[in-house]
Structures are given as C-alpha cells and as structure tokens.
Specification:
single chain; 329 residues; TIM Barrel; two-stranded antiparallel sheet; globular
Length: 329
C-alpha cells in the first residue's frame, strides 16, 4: 500500500496523459501556450498501462482518473482505458476533460470501460467562455456533456472556476442549469497553479463567496460528513434533495488530512501532492528494465515523503515549477 508517515493511504491515482491543451484558460496558461513536452519524454501507452497495473495490483489503488492537459488529445486514449478496465482487480475509471471532442468519443470511451467524466465549464455565456478560454468552443463543450450523459458516463460532473469580473455572478445560473440537465456541479477555488504565477489570494472567489451567492436562490444543507469521506468536494443538498452541489475549497478550507491521492505526470514522475515541488522519476526505472516490484518500491518510498499539507497557509509558500496543465488535475 502507498502509506505516508501521517497514516494516509493513497487509493486514488491521477494519471496525466499529456501536457497539451486546446484551450488557453486565463487561470492556467498564457495566450501563446507553453513549451510542450517532447514526444520521447512522454510515457508510451504500454508504459502507462504498466504503471497503472503496478499501482492496482501491487499498491492498492482502486480508482484511476485520467487527466491532462487535455486527455482527449491523447491518440491512444480509448485503448488505454480498455486495457486498464481489463485489470484484475478492476479499478474505477474516470476522466477529467474540457469536453471539446467528447461528443465524438463518449460512446467509445463508455464501451472501453470508462465509468464517468468530469467536464470543465466555467460559464453559460459563450462570450465569457471565449474571454476565459481564448477559444470559441462553448457549444462543443455543451455537445460533449450531452454525449457523455447519453452514453451513461454518469454521474456527469461539471467543474467550474469563478473569476472576478468575468463569471463571478453566474453561480446560481450554473446550478439551475446543472439541475435541469442532471449534472452534478462542483465549484473549485482558483489555485496557485497558473503558468504565469499571477495568482493572488486577495480577490479570488472563495468557497464562502460561492455559497453566499447560491443561497440567494437555493436552500443548501450540508451533506453528512460520513458521506464525504476523502472526497475533495464539500457537498450540499440542494432544496431538500436529491441533487447535490459541491465546493472544492483547496485554498480556504484545505482537505489535506484526508487526502488519498497519488499523481503520475505524463513524463512518468510521481507527485505526492498537487502543490509538491519534488518529484520521483518512474520513467527511468521503467526504461532501464527494473521489475515491477522495484518500481513499486520506489513509488512506496516516494509516498512516504508526502508532507502533512499543501503549505498554502505558509507565508513562505512557493508555487510548484510545473503549472496545472503539466501536473494533471
């Protein structure tokens, strides 16, 4: 098992399949994009499946989330999902995506064994979407969401980040829309993971701001603590249920004490935390011919070094060198 010195056990693996993205969200990367990883540096499909197999069969991982960048840009995505779904024991498989292109592959992903999706959508207004993402692809995301729901990739979760002066007035409208379409909405506080290092705590839209805005239109009751478990989202029962809305307060209400995640970058580095500044190389071990047991040992050792928390509340906090697109959400 992947147990750290604070007694936490990692059972949830986040696998970044690529650092590339076809959007340029203002809170993530500059308009001109970033220097992408060279193809030889990326894990191959076989290497990804092997590491997932080691994690599942030797290290106790039960959930695998494929992320990016934008994972739909990975040519072998459907095959990777299919091979991971064939593992014994079979992990729960999910995907975090911006939804562009999901309309074309949602059914194939479901057939391959994907269980559900998280789709990022910050606004219902196409003009605001274009400003936030610097791309005119709003309708493509809506199409992808519909295709995912139709294919049975449920519950379809929608992730929204509110930005001051752009979409900070949309929380109630987003929730009403999500309820009408049977999507589960989760608001995420903007985190210090932008490539520009322009994030500032002052002025960010907090979880408290989101809840205050939602309560102007909806009655919210906190979900019992035992139902949350290690999930990052605090969930609230909307108007007596059955629908829920989630708020991920990574900055103002960190949930590090219950963290059960381990992360693998697209170039084969283990990260113990989204905000970690250290990484452990598994790609070199793979390519130098190390057996599964040795790779598992390296992974266990890396997780032993996991810190108690993200350090966001420390005045000396420094952003990780890699931005979110290169780490994996």
């Amino acid at each position: 098992m992947l147990v750290d010195t604070y007694g936490r056990t990692a059972t949830d693996l986040r696998v970044s399949l690529t650092d590339r993205c076809n959007l340029r969200c203002t809170y993530c990367m500059p308009e001109e994009g970033l220097q992408w990883l060279a193809k030889p540096d990326l894990l191959t499909d076989d290497e990804i499946v092997r590491l997932v197999r080691i994690a599942v069969t030797l290290l106790g991982i039960t959930e695998v989330r494929f992320t990016g960048g934008e994972p739909l840009l990975r040519p072998g995505l459907v095959g990777i999902v299919e091979r991971c779904a064939d593992l014994d024991p079979r992990p729960q498989l999910s995907l975090t995506t911006n939804g562009i292109g999901l309309g074309r592959v949602a059914a194939a992903l479901k057939d391959a064994g994907l269980d559900r999706v998280n789709v990022s959508l910050d606004t219902l207004r196409p003009d605001v979407f274009k400003t936030l993402t610097r791309r005119d692809r709003h309708q493509d995301v809506l199409t992808g969401l519909h295709a995912a729901h139709t294919a049975g990739l449920t519950p379809v979760k929608v992730n929204a980040v509110l930005m001051p002066g752009l979409n900070d007035d949309e929380a109630p409208d987003l929730l009403a829309w999500a309820l009408a379409h049977d999507y589960e909405l989760r608001f995420i506080e903007q985190m210090p993971l932008d490539a520009q290092h322009g994030w500032q705590r002052d002025g960010m839209i907090t979880a408290g701001d989101v809840l205050a805005s939602l309560r102007t239109r909806f009655d919210l009751a906190p979900e019992p603590d035992e139902e949350r478990g290690s999930a990052p989202a605090e969930r609230w029962i909307v108007d007596g249920g059955p629908h829920r809305v989630g708020v991920i307060a990574s900055v103002t209400r960190p949930f590090c004490a219950a963290c059960d995640r381990t992360r693998l970058t697209a170039d084969g580095q283990v990260r113990t935390c989204l905000f970690a500044r250290e990484e452990t190389d598994l790609r070199e071990a793979l390519r130098s011919g190390e057996p599964d047991g040795e790779i598992a040992r390296i992974w266990r050792l890396a997780m032993r070094g996991k810190k108690a928390g993200s350090g966001l509340d420390d005045p000396a906090f420094l952003q990780p060198d890699r931005p979110m697109s290169a780490i994996g959400g």
